[in-house]
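Figure 3 (text version): structure tokens given as input.
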């Protein structure tokens, strides 16, 4: 987790120097969007596909941490 977040911070620093503000913003939003789609790919908990959470609290937490790390 910490390695992934550090990689996100490195990407944010690289985007600051190599991309326009618009390009950097688009890429950062794309990254958070991908994380959100991955989290929604399967429900957590429930029984035989009924009930459960679409996105767990832990997934929300890491999506938020990714957003913070890349400064969205």
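Below: residues designed for each position.
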């Amino acid at each position: 987790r910490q390695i992934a977040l550090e990689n996100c911070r490195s990407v944010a620093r690289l985007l600051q120097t190599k991309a326009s503000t618009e390009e950097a913003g688009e890429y950062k939003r794309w990254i958070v969007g991908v994380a959100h789609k991955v989290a929604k790919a399967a429900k957590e908990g429930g029984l035989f596909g009924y009930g459960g959470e679409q996105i767990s609290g832990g997934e929300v937490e890491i999506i938020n941490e990714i957003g913070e790390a890349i400064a969205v």
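The radius of gyration is 15 Å.
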